[in-house]
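Input for the complex:
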Amino acid sequence: MDPLTMTDYESPAQLRTALSRTGYLIEPDAATVVFLAGRLEKPILVEGPAGVGKTELALALAQSLDRRLIRLQCYEGLDEGKALYEWQYGKQLLYSQILKDKIAQELAGDRTLAEAMDRVFGFEDVFFSTRFLQPRPLLTAITSEDPVVLLIDEVDKSDAEFEAFLLEVLSAYTVSIPEIGTIRARTIPRVILTSNNTREMSDALKRRCLHLYLDFPGPEAELEILRVRRPDLAGALARQVVTLVDALRRLPLKKQPGISETLDWAAALLALSVETMDEEVLGRTLGVLLKFESDMTKARQKMPDLMKVLASARG
Amino acid sequence: MDKALLEFAGRLRKSGLMVSPAEVLDAGRAAAVVGVADRGVFKAALRASLVKRGRDIPAFNAVFDLFFSRGPKEPEPKPGTESEPPSGPETPADENAAQLLRELLDVVQPDLSLTTQMILAGRFSQLFQVLASRSGGMGLERLENPLQVNFFQRRLRQEMDLGGVRAETDRFFQALKDRGIGEETLDTLEAVVETNLDRLDREMRRLIRRELEQNRYLFLKRLEEEDLTNKNLAQITEGEIARARPVVQRLAQRLKDRLSLRLKRAERGRFDLKNTLRRNVGLGGPLPYLEFRHRKPAKPQVVALCDVSNSVRNFSRFMLLFLYTLKEVISRVRSFIFIGDLAEVTGLFQRHEINEAVSLAAQGRGLTWIFRTDYGGAFSQFAQEFIDAVGPRTTVLILGDGRNNFFDPKPWALAEMAGRARKVIWLNPEPRPNWRIGDSAIEHYQPYCQMMAECGNLGQLAHILEENLAI
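Predicted:
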């Protein structure tokens, strides 16, 4: 197929198939949103509990579109110097030292200070050019020759000011650098922002994005995911795994197990060559699923109920 | 389509969602891309462009289902087959009578209005379409109160000219009688007409009710929420606490955002020459990298003393919930509860889920209670046992009504705390005019508090905390 037309999918269904080939199963609604984001050239803001595959979505999309993934991990204190671009002062300085003699030559003909000054002003562009610009992920993403997938991970961890820098990039796909001017995107990146909702994003940012809420999958969907991602796990055991995880999610826990925990658990069970699930196995491996002591205590208290659920899954 | 979309956006706004014109435009583009053929895809497209908060999704779904389920957007019933909404089983006898009535209509060919014909023949899908289109111009979108339902139903009856229908029906039956049809048969036929009219009536009510739901969905919820923010905390009930939890969390979140912004702004300190020189020493003269002395602002510490006696129990419970939601911006919260005796409950919060801990704390587990509040006793106990908890960075927060049951107020204990603390703030759920009445010991304590504020509702609380936890 012509590489130019490969940049996007024809329909949500096609996108679903393509993603599933990379091992990422996506609900039809979510597929519609991802598909639309491509068509409307809009970023997607993905929200949802931890471990439901928000980041994974970007990875799978990049893989299926055969695009490079550029990742910007957000944290408190992230600023434009780390996210957009930075002037390489050191390099500028080094070059001006190296070129010292040349500069002296250039200025030799000038008789007055004012003349020399004018000439130096003429050099300025040499030093404030893209050569001395250190592009950071956002700038890299929009100046790339080949279209990329840009993942802005855990955007809620960044500060409210940082969102302001994002706005320009996300709505117009441009970056303004005072010394150079506005840099326009060569190719439109697919942008995915993920958020764990530790803080509410600003309305301005949300307005520019399509919104996607990923939730825990139902047991059937999760079973399908297990089949794809942990094909070695026996079918009966996989069903028990899914049933128990589903039951655990119904408990009032501090942190509910996500899909990633389910996958880890399945891997653990494979490593331990477990064949059937029982109270003892669950008790031993509970730490893979639950990350807080208080949650584990709660789960242990509910063990008889969990076992009942398990028994009904077997029946 | 565009008109429908605008109207839909209007409904969402009415339901309390924030929908900007730019988002409506996006939704239009999105709908144009995916089309309306697949309802699920269409819905997902609208949702992605119009709804930007996870918690608004249920509201969107409800409004979407209400809005896009009416009139022409539903698959049209194929002509000839009457797809009728279920309305109680019709007995074969009724069915026979209805059939007879239809045949008679064909034979007699009376001069009847269309509406009357539809009602007599029981052609409901046509009838309901007429109803839907007639209801269009009635201003149903103004309907916001259940009390208006009957009014609108009367209007709708007039609009359908049911009085005229009755008169025509009577004339028709008279004509049948004249043709020699027996009384008994006529009675069964009349019963059929009554049933049909009943069904029309029910449909009208359903239409109006649905409109009412559309107009009020989440409008009500929003009212409820605002109500809780302004609700007097002293009178809050158990059930309301459960409902208020998300509201508390939202308020806390907003406060957190603002406080952490302030922390950040304060971070960049004065120019630091020494570190600048050190950093640039390898560069031979110029100083491209500037260093600043970081004045790391100390996060405030809070010691909370909560009266959990019955009069203010729920109030304190709220406050604790609120304080612990703020743990990112407050470096340390130590909390104590008292009625007569005082006990530290900080540990409860470390071991238990916050909701559980708050209720454990409020129930006062692990304490021996005398049943009447004794502020003086509690303060002096604190001054003896826990005074080390209070340091120069600590804000002491006292939550309670100061009703001391005429015990010795022992103001010296509070004075001792105030001497060590950065600030003492007293939050009182009672309205200010009542403070000095009865057994209130407030005036003994007031001199030692930098601030003594009436804090009757969540809104006031958020405001006070923002002003006072400042760096």
